[in-house]
């Protein structure tokens, strides 16, 4: 597994890098069969250290965790615990489904846009209803089952996930509802 351990405006010493590699490889090796790479970023926010970790698995799924603490080692240890919990749940769900994904997740190219917010307190009508595009990026849409999409959304800690439904031919959306349940949008083709 490849590790990329970096710090934003802070120096990351060899001792911390060794600690991160040892601890994370133990957790990932325990719950994930073929991890490909891990990206760990340390930063400082006021008086707290922040640790963000992302682990990519060979199945195409991604696990993410983030933690804050007053000491840098404590921030990583808390982040590592969250990562272990996510990977344990992921492995349990794979066993519950009684099937392993034999092939990697298919990815489809798409464009992702960031739109400017509407001007506040503007009393006049806008000249056009077209939004102002601030940025355009390439993104990937995964081909997943509904269960895998929900799992991926929870692993990433995202509020919504767009995916290509393996069982059907169209794009679907899963999202976290305000009542805590998961919503699934399956448009009729």
TrEMBL record:
Subcellular location: Cytoplasm
Gene Ontology BP term (one): negative regulation of translational elongation
Chain coiled-coil ranges: 73-100
Keyword Ribonucleoprotein on entry: yes
Alphabetical list of InterPro entries matching this protein: HPF/YfiA_ribosome-assoc, HPF_long/plastid, RHF-like, RHF/RaiA, Ribosom_S30AE_C, Ribosom_S30AE_C_sf
Keywords of the record: Coiled coil, Cytoplasm, Ribonucleoprotein, Ribosomal protein, Translation regulation
Chief location of this protein within or outside the cell: cytoplasm
UniProt superkingdom: Bacteria
One GO cellular component, as annotated: cytosolic small ribosomal subunit
Residue intervals of the Sigma 54 modulation/S30EA ribosomal protein C-terminal domain: 130-183
One GO MF term attached to the UniProt entry: ribosomal small subunit binding
Pfam families the UniProt entry points to: Ribosom_S30AE_C, Ribosomal_S30AE
Presence of the UniProt keyword Mitochondrion in the record: no
Oligomeric form and interacting partners: Interacts with 100S ribosomes.
Family: Belongs to the HPF/YfiA ribosome-associated protein family. Long HPF subfamily.
Function, in words: Required for dimerization of active 70S ribosomes into 100S ribosomes in stationary phase; 100S ribosomes are translationally inactive and sometimes present during exponential growth.
Name used for this protein in its record: Ribosome hibernation promoting factor
Species assigned in the record: Shimia aestuarii
């Amino acid at each position: 597994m490849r590790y990329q351990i970096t710090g934003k405006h802070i120096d990351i010493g060899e001792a911390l890098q060794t600690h991160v590699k040892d601890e994370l490889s133990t957790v990932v090796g325990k719950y994930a069969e073929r991890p490909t790479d891990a990206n760990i970023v340390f930063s400082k926010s006021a008086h707290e250290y922040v640790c963000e970790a992302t682990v990519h698995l060979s199945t195409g799924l991604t696990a993410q965790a983030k933690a804050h603490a007053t000491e840098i080692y404590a921030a990583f240890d808390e982040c590592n615990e969250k990562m272990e919990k996510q990977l344990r749940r992921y492995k349990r769900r794979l066993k519950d489904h009684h099937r392993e994904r034999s092939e990697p997740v298919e990815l489809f190219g798409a464009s992702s846009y960031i739109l400017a917010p509407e001007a506040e307190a503007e009393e006049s009508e806008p000249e056009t209803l077209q939004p102002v595009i601030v940025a355009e990026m390439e993104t990937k849409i995964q081909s997943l089952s509904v269960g895998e999409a929900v799992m991926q959304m929870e692993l990433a800690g995202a509020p919504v996930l767009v995916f290509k439904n393996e069982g059907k031919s169209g794009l679907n959306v899963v999202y976290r509802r305000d009542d805590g349940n998961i919503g699934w949008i399956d448009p009729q083709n």
